[in-house]
Amino acid sequence: MITMEFEEMKKVWDSQNNEPLYSINEDALHNRILTKKRQGYHITTVSELLVIIISFASGVFIFAMNYFKSNPNFWMYMLSAWMLLTALFALVSRILRIQGDTQFDRTMLGDLNHAISVATYQVHLSQFMRWNMLPTGILLVLGVWGGGKSIWLAAGIVIFFVLVNYASRWEHNIYKNKKRELEILQSKLKN
Q1: List of long-range contacts for 145-153, beta carbons under 8 Å, 24+ apart
Q2: Structural domain boundaries, residue 132
Q3: Is position 76 within any domain?
């Protein structure tokens, strides 16, 4: 049986691919970075639009329903205002994020930095929405309780928000892991 030495195998490899054995295929790496950037950008855009549209529509709907009631509930007006402020905050954040996209050059490292910036923004947006559940839930429970509804309905709302918090923690960790992957890739490229 013929055994090849490592150097002979490297020469065969180099002659077949015209690439050194331990080289990085920069085009493939850049394409991978661009794919991750596009995925992160898409997820962030969808998340932002959902927050803006749902918060705005909910705020308007709650306000209208409360306004046309015979005895309006103060807490429901507060919930409506909070939802509209959440939509406004998400809209302003989106505008600022989009304006900041122009600061990155279109090199491999620039695209990677842009992907990390979008991933960081997504993590912050996710964290904001997790914390936003607390005042939203409190205002909703106060509105239900102040409207003379059953205490069991208020308890059901609390249980629902606890379950949503658990699911949002899982989602938030996915975003954190994606950001961490990009940061590890960045540190490897810099080294």
Answers
A1: 146/73, 146/74, 146/75, 147/73, 147/75, 147/76
A2: 29-190
A3: yes
